[in-house]
Amino acid sequence: MRKLWLLILLVALLLCSGCWDKKEINELAIVTTFGIDREPSTGMYTAYYQVINPPALSSRQGGGSKASVYTYRFKEYSLGRFMQKTATMMPRLLFTSHLQCYILSEEVARQGIIDILNYLETTPEWRMNVYLFVTDSPLKDVMNSFTTLEKVPGRHATSLVRILSRGSFTGGVEPIRVKDIVTGMEFQLPTLIPMIHYRGKPADTTERMEQIDVSEQAPSFFADSAVFSKGRMVGHLDSDNKYYYHILNTRYRKFTETVQVGGSYIDVETNNVQVKRKWNRSANHLNIYIHADLRILNNTQNTNLSLQNIQLIEKAFNRVVADKSEKMAALGKRNNWDLLGLQDEGATADTWRQTSVKFSVTSDVTTTGNKSDPYTIEGKEG
To answer: What positions does the domain Spore germination protein N-terminal occupy (predicted)?
Structure first.
């Protein structure tokens, strides 16, 4: 009986097909970043694929090439033709399961990305849960730039996202995944997408990686944000307005603000920011209440931190936050961007711009550092 069972198992093994769908790493072109540009005169798309060079990432690498990624560029008039076009140059099978991010040129973003979203949704090889960026620099330069500490540019971008995400309740500084654009199209509140700036020149050789000063060569992220409404970029917000958009809409709890007291500057960090809204719909009026706990990061005052002085810092912070919030709301009305999401809370397309919004800000200094009073020099002139 035992021999019969053994014979049956051997026959069953012969009938097994094994790992017929396995993929060897040496047969794959592993794409980490995908960029899309478009020529306005011809309508031709330009696609950029950043493909990992595995030997360059090995810690035991000896001589040979040092580029961590290679960038391939293709042109086509239709998005669906790129998969076939890659086979004309890439000697490996295109593999996008490890994709880190998409980068769109500003030209593509302003024309609208509905076609791109539909293409990604209907093509199983692409992913909707990866990060999305917009660049106002030439996409070719961005896709050929080097990054430091993280050798793979796509991983560099996602690492920055994770670091900045620590400051919010929602787990992200901005809703910047592709699927979030799709979700955002259901609302009147615009969606913010981080912008990439690149001030350097594209590298001609990997020796540029040996430079110490990377400020002028590496791309910078998150300084500004592209404003998307209904799947199309309609403008951009600078750093201050971007942060206050998140404070007022997405419960962003940590940011740094600078206030002035008696001619001296004090840097404070907010913690546990709380925002509440109270509508008076009959009067078409909205009160937004903001409260924050403050930690003093830098104090240039030449006076001791008394209770009265702390109250002056709190009042100065309250004024700054209220003023910047009002300016952001006014900017939205001028540009017809509902940056407070008033229409999603009951206001109509005709009345939201006439809604009166008042910001009431309170704060408490809860942390002053290891030494509350600054060092002073007795008898100092001036």
So the answer is: 21-196
